[in-house]
Amino acid sequence: MGSIRFIAVIASLAATALAPTALGQTVLDRERAFCVGQDRHMSLDTQIIACTHVIQTSNQETDRIASAYNSRGNAYRDQGNFDLAINDYDQAIRLSPDYANAYNNRGLAYRARHDYARAIADFDAAIRIDATVAGVFLNRAGAHAEQRHFDLAIADYNQAIQLDANFARAFNNRGNAYRSQGNFDRAIADYTTAIALDPNYANAYNNRAIAYRAKGDAAHATADLEQAQRLSTADQPD
To answer: Over the stretch 129-167, which tens digit does the pLDDT of each residue have?
Structure first.
């Protein structure tokens, strides 16, 4: 039954993808697109099947197979299947030892398992290969913060912000680190910057409310909590 389902899904992918694809594009090209998640409405199971078919195609270039392992690992990670995800990232790195994104993604899987030593080692490797990606510094900072190593976290958030001055999430998360240290004024300043960069950032309003409340500023705390609630429910169905 498993093989029948696999064949049926692949046939369905080929059939449904015909209309939006350019003339001459092969079924395998479409499967690669599905594998890397270009169709955001596709289920994770379907993405995994597409990646598996790309991996099993023997005449593919090594870097494309590595990319398929990485993408399938992401889908497994999104499902919470961290062991399967890590196995796929291992394969991607084996095929492409300088694959910074695979190291970063494996680090996220280890971090989700609370294996912080391995997570940080992978983020370190990704940064050694490419030190220009703000998100990797954000991820390593998160691993430090979850261990309450706030000075290390702040240093990484600083680097993320230096690389991307419009990185609202880095400001918000650095605010959390400052707040955890009891530095409420710096935390509020960071949340305020995050909100200026992204006025719909409900979590930043909520975090700023917590910092205001810690300072005894009930009026500002209440206003921010109300705004966070409005933003959180704005897109919810009646």
So the answer is: 999 999 999 999 999 999 999 999 999 999 999 999 999
Portion of the chain with pLDDT greater than 70, in percent: 85
Domain at 1-131: CATH code: 1.25.40.10
Kindly report the backbone phi and psi dihedral angles of residue 97, in degrees, each rounded to the nearest multiple of 5, phi listed first.
-60, -20
Least confident of 52-66, 87-101, 170-184: 52-66
Q: What's the one-letter identity of residue 152?
A: L
**Residues 76, 88: contact at Cβ < 8 Å?**
yes
Structurally, at CATH architecture level, domain 144-233 sits in Alpha Horseshoe (1.25)
Q: What is the 3-state secondary structure (H, E, C) of 29-86?
A: HHHHHHHCCCCCCCCHHHHHHHHHHHHHCCCCCHHHHHHHHHHHHHHHHHHCCHHHHH
> Other C-beta atoms within 10 Å of 114: how many?
10
Please report, for the chain, the start and end positions of each structural domain, with discontinuous segments joined by +: 1-131, 144-233
How much is the average pLDDT of 53-73?
Answer: 89
| Model pTM score | 0.85
Crossing angle (nearest 10°) for helices 202-214 and 184-197: 160
Say how far apart CA 33 and CA 109 lie, in whole Å: 23
- Residue 70, classified by CB atoms within 10 Å of its CB into exposed (0-12), middle (13-18) or buried (19+), is buried
Judge contact between 73 and 88, C-beta under 8 A.
Answer: yes
3-state DSSP assignment of residue 221: helix
